[in-house]
Amino acid sequence: MQRDRLAEFLRTRREALQPEDVGLPRGQRRRTGGLRREEVAALSGMSTDYYSRIEQQRGPHPSEQMLAAIARGLRLSLEERDHLFRLGGHAVPRRVLRGDHINPGMMRIFDGLGEAAAQVVSDLGETLQQTRLAVALLGDETAYTGLARSLHYRWFTDPATRELYHPDDHAVHSRQLTADLHRSYTRDGGRGRGGAIADALLRASPEFADLWRGHPVPGPYCVAKRLRHPQLGPIELQCQTLLDPDQSQSLLVYTATPGTESYEKLQLLSVTGGLPA
Length: 277
Known about the structure:
Layout: H1 3-16, H2 37-44, H3 48-55, H4 64-73, H5 78-87, H6 104-111, E1 117-122, E2 127-130, H7 132-138, H8 151-157, H9 159-162, H10 170-187, H11 192-204, H12 206-213, E3 225-229, E4 233-244, E5 249-255, H13 261-272
Antiparallel strand pairs: 1-2, 1-5, 3-4, 4-5
Helix pairs in contact: 2-3, 2-4, 4-5, 8-10, 8-11, 10-11, 10-12, 11-12
GO molecular function, one term: DNA binding
Keywords: DNA-binding
Pfam family, one: HTH_31
């Protein structure tokens, strides 16, 4: 670990990042450019004290998970992330298509959607980032660990996952999710995380195994959805998708047609945050 150079690198990147770059208001009291340490810590999902100690050369040896979180918080490019890992005394993460690192350009777009229901998802159904409204609408999909991080896996192994979706649409979702995983599996030759998810599902789910044998081909990535929200009841949504082919990640934005009951419910959810009114 190169403690002094690590601290200097973090400071330069923090000072170069403007509040507008991450969807934060500049405010009248901000005298200098760049982000504050507490803002970077919040964006990285860690305490201000922990981040500050690293930047002040008096902190602990950060883990790979902490460095990855800081890289996301500072909106680092893949090259900058690799440099951060080297300074932190860790091996550079493998450049796999499926990863937790989100393209800085994608993150800038995401940051501008703070009031929308939006999330960044890998091609294996792993939710990497959600807006507050997306959490209220769909639940915190970033909290899962292991194979359960993948919606593809949860859909076929956890019955509670399906409760959010209209029963008449379950078959369509099953086929779509299987097709998405089959595409990733074929692309990677059955190796990596996609292969592990597929192998586990073939053992655990007869429904998945039957669909898998049919070699399904994906249709539209994000079809219209009919949700059954636990507080607000039925909600019909459209989904727009922005694809980052370099990272095999998608930015999904859920909307409702203005003037409809679903639109009013989505507006209400943005105010209540999913709590009973």
